[in-house]
Amino acid sequence: MAVEITWWGHATVTVRDSGVRVLTDPLFVSRLAHLRRRRGAVPPPGAALADVALVSHLHADHLHTGSLARLARGTRVLVPRGASAAVPRLRRLATDLRLDVTEVVPGDKVQVGELTVRVVPAAHDGRRLPYGPERSPALGYVLEGEERTYFAGDTGLFDAMAEEVGPCDAALLPVGGWGPFLGDGHLNPARAAQALVRLAPRAAVPIHYGTYWPIGLDAVRPHEFHSPGDEFARLAGDVAPQVAVHRLDHGETLRLEAGR
After folding, report:
1. Is 131 a residue whose pLDDT tops 60?
2. Which residues contact 64 (CB under 8 A, 6 or more apart)?
């Protein structure tokens, strides 16, 4: 059987594995506060169809309640522990739409049909800024079915990354951001290439770049918007040539034959 990976832009990806449709960090808007979608169409309604949605952390470009509201009634949603306390509208969505919201922490495993979702840590500030001091961990997820697919969410490199993630066949790695400067707790193309050295997947897909950019900053370091995917592929070829890097266009699907 094949695993299909569709990149909708930013950190929003659909992974189909073992008959289960997984949606990551859904963001279905043309504008979010000071950010404007500059590349790729807003995902079509079908992108919101999922058996389970995974939320990596509480930042508004990853936990976007308006996008979660587009999920079908009863959709299962995994969120970091503390999310419901930090984001009151999430509680209302769980009630009004009957979303099956489950809070998780690293080490948890959740079974969805024939697929196991394993929760792993991420090196990132996962708080819902600036709305309060509630602490909530940033997470990654490993999907274990026909293949093992690692969705990193938003993270920096950390010492135990390979140990926590374990063997994986495909890695969905952030390689950029939504502004001209990346702070701590992020992967840029070089650090994402080093993550491949540690993880040694068969395939990698760069995400979290080339989609949103601050309004009025189009002329400020534009290469940070356009180039991270290509730069990641180039650097990966130098340090991890055994990994097949697939730079997807928005809405494009990669089909991976299991075990190849």
Report:
1. no
2. 26, 27, 28, 29, 32
